[in-house]
């Protein structure tokens, strides 16, 4: 009786529409307007971990049946990348989550430069849990194969690099590829800023070296620098006395009174060479003849009895260790005629004077008498000299000899020429030109005195 009743209810439900659908495990169902009337539509969804099998949408039809196929939420499969891809150098695999790939997710593959990828460059995780090449629908894993390296048979002169599938020539350090790209030529590093060398730069094939100028040695800091050698450090630079170092060299010096020998190392006393007296002569001090006279010391030539000296008498030892020879020195026999003039005379006129009265002393001579020109001049008395230069010649003469010498007498008038008064003899003054000394070296004295009243 109860069974019949249930059956009747079932028939009634069927008569009204379709049997309600179950909500799938791990999914949702939503129906409208409800889940059993004819014309109702139910849609299904699965949560993330599952995928939907069957129909996503079903409708209750006139014949009281749902359209489509029963709906299920099935656990999504996981595809796993074969382990060896993780340890392969040649090939790189990039998957969404390391090795484990979810449904519809992708793994991409690529090869290192010099290898070529054989097979698909992408695999997709499929429902069957296999990574599959979607284009071909096959499960084929890619691999990397070495390709012919274009550098292997390149015409590169030195080095070849495999860059984006092509051979690219380049040269070793120190070389440059020529324009045609077929040869590598040496770079002359020295032509640019001397290669950075402090001293001398030497270009070599593919490189260069630096060396140092004399007096310098290579620094330990780098291959370019040079440092000064302190030559004095070792054996005093070979100097006998003082050694002085400077950048790039050194020099020997000597203590005071000594001079560096031409060998540049030893020291010699500053002495002039022996000074030999003229014939019939001698030299004072006698050490002059030994070459032991030092710088600034003097030697004097003298003549033997019966001879007189002519030319230079005093010699000084110069700093250059040479005698200051200005002239030839001779000892001439006393019998030869000679005459030694006083020096030129210069006097100034007193105011109102028109001429100067000058007393001329006879020059020294070994012959008498001493004659004078012009004729109006007399020796050993006062002469009137006009206000100008008067040339006076003294001369001696005998049957064998002749000698002469000249002086000038300058009378300077500082006054304007006019007016002038007649002379007042009482107030006249006489100037006396003193006698010359024997050597003729002393300056002549010009003395003045008042004449006694007439
Ligand atoms: C998936 O569905 C199951 C069962 O309904 C539930 O326990 C789980 O939390 C759901 N997961 C997600 C991510 O919604
Ligand atoms: C290298 O190149 C030469 C001529 O360009 C060719 O004859 C030879 O077969 C090549 N060798 C390889 C290994 O490609
Ligand atoms: C050039 O010479 C220097 C010094 O000997 C060396 O350090 C450097 O490596 C060389 N360079 C090349 C390109 O050979
Ligand atoms: C040197 O002698 C010449 C002729 O012998 C003479 O003219 C000259 O004045 C003399 N020089 C000195 C400085 O004595
Ligand atoms: C020079 O002459 C002037 C004019 O007669 C006179 O005044 C003066 O005293 C004279 N001077 C001397 C130094 O005789
Ligand atoms: C002196 O002067 C006279 C005439 O001016 C001249 O001929 C002569 O050569 C001079 N003598 C000397 C030694 O200068």
Description:
This protein is mainly beta. It is built from two helices and 40 strands. The strands form 16 sheets. The chain has a four-stranded antiparallel sheet with strand order 7-9-11-12, with no helix packed on it. A hairpin with an 8-residue loop joins strand 1 and strand 2 (41-46). The longest helix is centred in the first third of the chain and has 15 residues, at 2-16. It starts with a helix and ends with a strand. Bound molecules: 2-acetamido-2-deoxy-beta-D-glucopyranose (6 copies).
Count of discrete alpha- or pi-helical segments spanning 4 or more residues: 2
Task: Describe the sheet with the most strands.
Answer: 4 strands, antiparallel
Shape: rod-shaped
- Helix residue percentage: under 10%
Subcellular location: Secreted
InterPro entries: cEGF, EGF, EGF-like_Ca-bd_dom, EGF-type_Asp/Asn_hydroxyl_site, EGF_Ca-bd_CS, Growth_fac_rcpt_cys_sf, Sushi/SCR/CCP_sf, Sushi_SCR_CCP_dom
Protein name: Sushi domain-containing protein
Signal peptide: 1-17
